[in-house]
Amino acid sequence: MVVGLSHSISLCDRLTTAELTTSPILIEQPLQEPVVQKPPADPKTVASIILGGGAGTRLFPLTSRRAKPAFNPQSLNRHLARTYDFANGVNFGRGFVEVLAATQTPGESGKRWFQGTADVDAKLRHTENILILSGDHLYRMDYMDFVQKHIDSGADISVSCIPMDDSRASDFGLVKIDENGHILEKPKGESTRTMAYLFNGYWEDIGTIKSFFDANLALTNQPPKFHFYDPSKPIFTSPRYLPPTKAEKCRVLNSIISHGCFLAGCTVEHSVVGVRSRLEHGVEFKDTMMMGADYYQTETERGLCLKHGKVPIGVGANTKIRNCIIDKNARIGKNVVIANGDNVKEADRPEEGFYIRSGVTVVLKNSTIAEGTVI
């Protein structure tokens, strides 16, 4: 029996001391609105749209011959088809992956066909919530927790946000929220209810040369802030079926070496070496990301290159490289030095096979850096 405070006092007056020590007295609480249990989020009713468009200017020159999907989608489409082939035995549940290509309108308006990454046309059935994601961020999030918080809040739109210090705030879009998570600053004329979902895990933008470079090298840290080895939350990519990397008399410190590489008598420090990379004797890498190669050259092909004074794919003997991104299939000769000793921040040298962006030297895809070159 629940009684009010006045009833409790009058009841105590008629109880003995022994009764007081054994009999509970319940104090009535103010009436509260009943809690309405929100339905659990159902992944079958959630569709995700990954925005992968853009002109690619922030990641140039890496995007000069690589997919920025609004303009050069072929390699991305091929990657998706190979990686998320649901008939190959990999179990992704009942999900699906479909490319929603941008459509160009004929006539004058077609010249302005790219209107931003949100300019997509999706017709999705049985969908109650749409999760819109950016394709140039590195993080690991439980999206269903995000969706559940959205449902529980009753919001029309929920935006995932992370705390950001003043030193980096100018690089990102900013929102202002109140103590309940409501986003206060809205577009003019909008009456939509918008909530913030605060994400406190690792998150990094990789949409610029510097951020892409830093995020990749940060994976070599011990321990890294982000790693790919969580068995409960695996990261999938396209299978390549390459042999293990072979290293002979090498020194490798705090680095990641991908599969299918040949390393001979070289030093690799705080660097990432991509698939099918080849580093010859005396090569020194530091703070460098080598993206590898799309194919192998046979020993005969390599021999013919050297015989005719050409540079084979890979990095030649006694070459020293630091603070550099080496794009796919690059040919770097012997005794090359890439160090940007003059600390140049920006430079365009496409005819010489490289650019410099934010102080990082970028060796172009399929380019050749001649023997003895100093950058």
From TrEMBL:
CDD domains: LbH_G1P_AT_C. It catalyses: alpha-D-glucose 1-phosphate + ATP + H(+) = ADP-alpha-D-glucose + diphosphate. Residues 72-194 form the Nucleotidyl transferase domain. Its EC number is 2.7.7.27. Coiled coil: none annotated. One of its GO terms (molecular function) is glucose-1-phosphate adenylyltransferase activity. One of its GO terms (biological process) is starch biosynthetic process. Pathway: Glycan biosynthesis; starch biosynthesis. It comes from the Eukaryota. The keyword ATP-binding applies. Signal peptide: none annotated. Pfam families: LbH_GLGC (PF25247), NTP_transferase (PF00483). Keywords: Allosteric enzyme, ATP-binding, Nucleotide-binding, Nucleotidyltransferase, Starch biosynthesis, Transferase. Belongs to the bacterial/plant glucose-1-phosphate adenylyltransferase family. This is glucose-1-phosphate adenylyltransferase.
